[in-house]
Amino acid sequence: MRVDWKSYNPGNFFDETISSPGYARKHARHLVSYLRSLKPGELNARKQAAILAIKTMGISFTVYSDAGNIDREWPFDIIPRIIPNKEWQTTSKGLEQRVRALNHFINDVYNAQKVFKDKIVPKDLILDSENFRKECLGIKPAFGTWAHICGTDLIRDKDGLFYVLEDNLRVPSGVSYMLENRTVTKRVFPELFENYDIQPVTDYPSKLFDTLAAISPRRLKYPEVVVLTPGIYNSAYFEHSFLAQRMGAELVEGGDLVVQDDCVYMRTIDGLSRVDVIYRRIDDLFLDPDVFIKDSVLGVKGLMQAWIKGNVGLANAPGAGVADDKIVYTYVPKLIKYYLDEDPILPNVPSYICSDKKQRQHVLKNLDKLVVKPANESGGYGMLMGPQASRREREEFARRIKANPRNYMAQPLISLSTAPILGDRNAEPRHVDLRPFILQARDSYVTPGGLTRVAMVKGSYVVNSSQGGGSKDTWIVNV
Amino acid sequence: MLSRVAERVYWMARYLERAENTARLINVYSNLLLDLPRGTKVGWHTLIDIAGANREFNASGKSTDERSIVRFLIAESNGVSLLSVLSMVRENARTTREIIPAEAFEQINDIYLFIRENSSGQISRSARNKLLEEIIVYCQQLTGLLAGCLSHNHVHRFIRIGRNLERADMTTRIVDVGSGNLLPDLDLDGTSDGDPTDPYQDMLWMSVLRSLSAYQMYRQNVRDRVNAEDVVKFLLQDPEFPRAVNYCLHQVEDCIGELSEHKAAIRQVRRALRKTRQADIPQLLSKGLFKYLDEMQVEIADIHDQIATTWFLPPN
C-alpha cells in the first residue's frame, strides 16, 4: 500500500490534514509528503511495529462484557494529528478559563450559594443532581479548588472551530494513553520528528505531582501522595499504575489504607505510614463506607471525616462531579461571565434542557435530528443518536425523557472533523475528537494537545475506547 | 513499602521460579524416559506428584498418558500449568507495575504472550522441547534483569525471598524423584551401596542434577562419580550452589534480617537451616528420606506463613 492523497476524500467534513483532496493544510505538509514517500512494504511495517510496541509495553485497557472482562491492547492509529500552536494557544486559554469558572461554581454551591440567590442557575436543578453531595456543604478545600484534574472533550464542527462537548470532572481518564501514544510514535516514525517542532507532553506526571503536592495539609517538601485505584479489574487500571509509576507515588487499594484519629495511613512492611494526598480514581460513592455506599470494599472507612478535618487532600474533591453534569454544562458560558466577568473563549455546542418545558417539547418533536444524552453517564453509554436510531428506540427515549426530564439534555447532531487513519488500502478519513487535560490548584496547566480519539468505523461518531474507538498521537506544532 | 506490594512481588518471584522449575522438570523427565529401556512402565504421573498437583489433576479427570499429562502441565488453565503460573506472574507484575523496572514488565508480558500463543493446539515432542527451553531462557533473562535494574531495596529483598523459598521447596521435591520413591516401577532403591554399575541408577541421579542445572557444579565440587549420597548432600547441604536448600535458606535469612520486626521469621528460617545441616544423609538414604523431605517442605511452608503474618496485609 502507498498513501494516495488524491483519492483521500473527507467529503463534507472539516479535515485536520487536508484542505481539499490532494492539498495538505500548511501545518500538515511534511506529514502528507512523508507518508506519500513511504514504499508500500514500509508503511505496513511501521503499522506492525506500532502494534508490537503496544503489545510489549502492555498498554491495555479493560472492556466489560457479558463474557467477562477482557484486557485489550490499546487501539492506536499511527498517523499523528497535527494542530498549529497558534490555534492551540487560544484553545488552551479557553480551557483554563472554563475550569477556573467551574471551580468557582462548585465552591459556591457547597458554600455561599450566591449563584442561586442571583438566579443564575436554578437551585433545585443542582440540589437534585445525582452528583450533588450534601456531605460536602461548608467545606473549603485548599485554593477553593474542587476539580484538580479535568478532561474536557472538544470537537471541531464543519466551520473548523473547536466546541466544548463536555467536561469530565470526576475521574477523567486517558492521559496515560496520550503519553504512551507519543512514545509509540517516536518508536515508529522517528524521522518525522526532525521536520517538526513538536511540543513535548512528557512533563504531565510532574505537573500532576506538583498539583497534588500543593494540596497537602502538611507543608512538606515531599508529601506522601498516593494513587487510589479500585484495582486491576478497573478499565483504567493501566493508567492508575502508569501515573503512580511516573510520579513515583504509591499505588494503593482501599485495603492498603486505614484511618486512625482522623488521619489516613497506609499499611507498609514497617507499620503504618501517614498519607497526605490521595489522587483517587474511584467514584465518590465508593470512597467511604461510613458515609456513602455501606458495603463498598473499594474505599476507606473514615476517609471523609479525615478530609473534612483537613488532614488529607483528596483530588478530585468529593462532590466535584456536581459540575460534571450535562445539564450544568449548558450553563457554563453564563458561569464564566458570572464568576470571572470574562467572555467565554470556547463556545459550547448548542443544547436543549429537557427540564424546561418549551425546550423539552422541541426535543420530543425533533428526536430524529437530535442527540439525547443522560445527565450523568459517561463513556458514551445511554445515549440516543436520533438520526441513526430506530423508531422504537426513539419512542423508548421519549418515554424516558417524559418520566425524568431533569436527567436529559439534547444537542443537534454536530459534525466531528476527520483525520486520516491508515486503512487497508489507503489513508481513510475518520471522525475524531480531542480530550485535553487541565490541572488546577495553586497554578493551572493545560496539556499541549491531549488525547485524540478516533471512531475507527467508517462514518461512525462513536470514539469511546469501550465501544471500539481508537486513538492518535496529537501534535501541537509551531509552523 | 506497602504490605500488599511486598506480598505481590514475593508471589511474582515465586511463580516465576516455579515456571522455570516446571519447564526444567518436564524437559529433564522427558529426556530421562528416552534413555530408559523400552517397555519400562514409567508413569508420567510422577510429574504431577512433583508439581504437587494431584488434587488439581484428579479434578480434571484426565488420563495419565504422556500427552494428557504434558498438556496439563503446560497449557491448561488449572492453577499449576506453565500457562497458569506465568499468567499469575503477569497478574502480580501488573498490580505492582509502578515499582518494578519497565523492561522487566515488558519481559514478563512477552513470556506470557509467548506461552499463550504457543500452548494452544498440539505440542509435538520436539516443539515441546524448544518451547520449554525458551521459557527457561526467558525466566533466566528476567531474573538477570531484576538483579541488574532494580535497586537492592525491600522490593528486591521480597523478590529474593520468594525466589529462594520456591527454589528450596522445589529442590526437596526433585530429590524425592531421585530417592526412588517416585519411580517405584524401576525398582531402584537409590542407596549408595546399590550396584555401582547399575546404569539406570546413575542416570536417574544425573537427571536429578540436570533438572537443577547442577551437574557441572556437582562434578567440580564432588569429583567422585555420581552417587546418591553425594548428590543428596550436595543438593541439601552445599553452602555455595544456588539451588541447594542450605544456600537458598541462607539467602532468605539474609534478606529477612534487613527487614524490621524480623525476629519470629528469622527463628523459623534458622530452625529449617538446622534441620538441613543436621541431616544424616547415609542414614536417611537407607530409611526415612521421604519422610524427612516431607518435613522439610512443612518447614518451608511455616517460613512462608511467618513471613505472611509479619509483613503481608492481614486477611479481610
In round numbers, the mean pLDDT of chain A is 92
CATH class of the domain at 86-145 and 203-340 in chain A: Alpha Beta
Q: End-to-end distance of chain A, in Å? A: 29 Å
Major sheet of chain B: none
Please give the number of β-strands of chain B. 0
Known CATH architecture of the domain at 86-145 and 203-340 in chain A: 3-Layer(aba) Sandwich
User: What is the succession of H and E elements of chain B?
Assistant: HHHHHHHHHHHHHHH
The radius of gyration of chain A is 23 Å
> What is the overall number of helices of chain B?
15
Can you put this structure into words, describing what you see?
The complex is a heterodimer of chains A (479) and B (316). Among the domains of chain A are: 86-145 and 203-340, Rossmann fold, CATH 3.40.50; 352-412, Dna Ligase, domain 1 (2-Layer Sandwich), CATH 3.30.1490. Helices cover 30% and strands 25% of the residues of chain A. Chain A is built from 13 helices and 24 strands. In chain A, strands 5-24-23-20-19 form a 5-stranded mixed β-sheet. In chain A, strands 7-6-21-22 form a 4-stranded antiparallel β-sheet. In chain A, a hairpin with a 2-residue loop joins strand 3 (60-65) and strand 4 (68-73). Chain B is mostly helical. Chain B folds into 2 domains: 1-150, no CATH class; 152-316, no CATH class. Helix content of chain B is 71%, strand content 0%.
